[in-house]
Amino acid sequence: MTRDEALFEFLLRMGDNTLILGHRVSEWCGHSPVLEEDIALANTALDMIGQTQLWLGLAGEVEGKGRTADNLAFLRDAWDFRNVLMVELPNGDFGQTLMRQFLYDAWSFVMTDWLKGSADERIAAIAEKAHKEVTYHLERSGDTVIGLGDGTEESHRRMQAALDYLYPYCGEMFEKDKADELLAEAGIAPDPAELRAEYDDIVGRVLAEATLAIPGGDYVHKGGRNGRMHTEHLGHLLTSMQWLQRAYPGAAW
């Protein structure tokens, strides 16, 4: 594997995470429990789609085959996506959506913070912009997890159930392969495993204040970030997200 091939893989992972989670979050538009949350989730989705444009746009440049961010978003099949499994899971109830957002935001926060000092100036510039947005996302999702976790008996029960379901998916974000090793050696991206301690500190502090118990066990759901195995949910999501471009190739407003 060359460094450019490793970089392309990394950029797909970053862009696919924000693309798929951004689409999932956008599904709440018009369906949130209160208007303020409806607007907040829509804005979060827009931020993530904006980050996708930057990550996948750079991926297209690095690949050198003339593919744009739009090509990569709308003209790949499920097995070509490199997002972690957690972001493609169905939204579930509002508590599950916000718990997933928090667990992802904490990872995105530590990742983009590291990438601001990347040896690749293009990545550093994207991370600088993204980190500002992610900082707000983490503050908001963390506060919501605390409010619901330490709220009523019912909200606490639902948040604990969401955490129990989603936590085994977190480990995939810290898996590493040859691409990660090559980029870490070049100072372009971190060794994912080295981000775990800071992530655990952020997550642990918020969950403690939310009176939620971190599940035990070492099992990790994985396979998405290297394209080996996605859940059945990704195919259904892509059917909804890509249908216009697939039905009318090259369509433009």
Order of helices and strands: HHHHHHHHH
Low-pLDDT runs of 5+ residues are none
Strand content: under 5%
> How many discrete domains?
1
How many β strands by DSSP?
0
Reported CATH architecture: Up-down Bundle
The residue-averaged pLDDT reads: 95
Structural class comes to mainly alpha
Name the CATH class.
Answer: Mainly Alpha
Give the helix proportion (percent range): 55-70%
**Name of the CATH superfamily:** Ferritin, core subunit, four-helix bundle
Main sheet summary: none
Distance between the termini: 39 Å
Shape summary: globular
CATH topology-level name = Ferritin
User: What is the chains' assembly state?
Assistant: single chain
Q: What is the number of helical segments per DSSP (H or I, 4+ residues)?
A: 9
Cα Rg: 18 Å
Structure description:
The chain has 253 residues and is mainly alpha-helical. The chain has one domain: Ferritin, core subunit, four-helix bundle (Ferritin, Up-down Bundle), CATH 1.20.1260. The protein is built from 9 helices and no strands. Helix 1 (3-26) crosses helix 7, helix 4 packs antiparallel against helix 5 and helix 4 crosses helix 6. The longest helix has 29 residues, at 35-63. It is globular and about 55 Å long. The mean pLDDT is 95.
What brief labels describe this structure?
single chain; about 250 residues; mainly alpha; 9 helices
Write the layout of secondary structure elements.
Layout lengths: L2 H24 L8 H29 L5 H6 L19 H22 L5 H29 L3 H14 L11 H8 L10 H14 L22 H16 L6
Helix pairs in contact: 1-2, 1-7, 2-5, 4-5, 4-6, 4-8
Quick synopsis:
This protein is mainly alpha-helical.
